[in-house]
Amino acid sequence: MKPKKRKVIIYVGTGAKDRRFDTFKRRIIYIFSRLAQRGFITTKELAEKFEMTPRNALRDLYPLREEGILKENITRSGRWEFDTASNSFIKMVVTDNDSSTLTFLYNFAKVFGGDINEKVLSVLDKGFLREDREYPFFMITQKVKNPAAKMPCHQELYDAILKHHKINLTYRKATGQQATVKVSPFSMIMCDGLWYLGYLPDGKEKELRTVRSSHIISVEPLPDEVFERPEWAHKAMKEAKNIWFGPAKTKFRLKVQNTIKDYFEMSEFFPEQKIKDEGPEYFTIEARYSHYNEVVPNILRFLPAITVLEPAELKAEVAWRVNAYKP
C-alpha cells in the first residue's frame, strides 16, 4: 500500500511578523472592497473569512470607527457601514490628478507659514503618502524663509475672531513706538506673502484697518465685550485685492491695450472690474477703489500698456509715482 501524499507548504525568507502584517493588509483591503461592493460589512463575515474570533475582528473595525470612517448600524448589531457624516480622507476616491493637486496644495501651504502651514501639512499627512515623484503643477510665488515661524498671538486672535470678542491690541507703529487700542478683530489676512490682522477700531465701526502680524506685540482678550460683524465689512473683504480696502468706493476707468487683455479676462486685478468698449486695439476697464494703494500697484505693473482715463486724482497719483522714481 502506497503512503498517502501530503501537501507541504514551506515559507522562505519571511518571519511570523511579516506574515501577520501581510494578513492585516489583506483584511483591510477586504473590508474596503466589501464596503465598495455593497456598502457594509459584518463582524461575523470578517471573522469567518480570516478564521478568527469576532473579538479579533473588532480589533480591525474599532480603529476605523475612531477615525470617523465606519459606524456600526444602531438597529443591526455587528453590521458596519461608512460614516457619511464624517469627512475622512480615506473615504475619498483619489485619482492621480487629485493626488497631484493635493501635493501642489501641500507645497503651496509653505507659503502661508506658521500655524496655517503646520495644520495644512498635518491634515494632508494623515490622508496621503507623498512619494518623491514629478507632478505637473508648480507655483511661482514668494519664498517664505521660515515656514515654521508662528504668527504672534495666533491662538488668542483665532479665538477672538471666532467668538466675536473684542481685544486690546498692542502693536508697534512704523515709527517704532508702541500703541494699545481696543479693536474688533475681523480676520487674519494673507497678502503678498505676509500675514495681517484685519480689525474694526472701537468707536469707528465704519472703518476697516490692518496691522502686519510681525508688528503685533500682545493681545488681551475681552470676553465680556462682544461685537457683531457688519455686512459691509464682509463684502469689502470678499472684493478686496490687497489690504487697502474699505466701504467707500470711487469709480475709475482705464484704457488698456489688447496685448494684455488675457490677463484681465482670466483674473480680477481691480475691485468690481468690468471689461467695456472692446475695440481692435484697445478696451476699457471700469472698476472702483477705496484707497489709491488698492489699484495703483497693478496700474504701474502694466505700464505702458495701460492708461488712467478718470478720475483726474487717480491719474495725478500715478503720474506722481512715476516721476518720483526718476533719479
UniProtKB/TrEMBL annotation:
Residues 260-321 form the WCX domain. PROSITE patterns: WYL. Residues 27-71 form the HTH deoR-type domain. Pfam families: HTH_DeoR, WCX, WYL. Keywords: Transcription, Transcription regulation. It comes from the Bacteria. GO terms for molecular function: DNA-binding transcription factor activity. Residues 155-220 form the WYL domain. PANTHER family: PROTEIN PAFC, PTHR34580. This is WYL domain-containing protein.
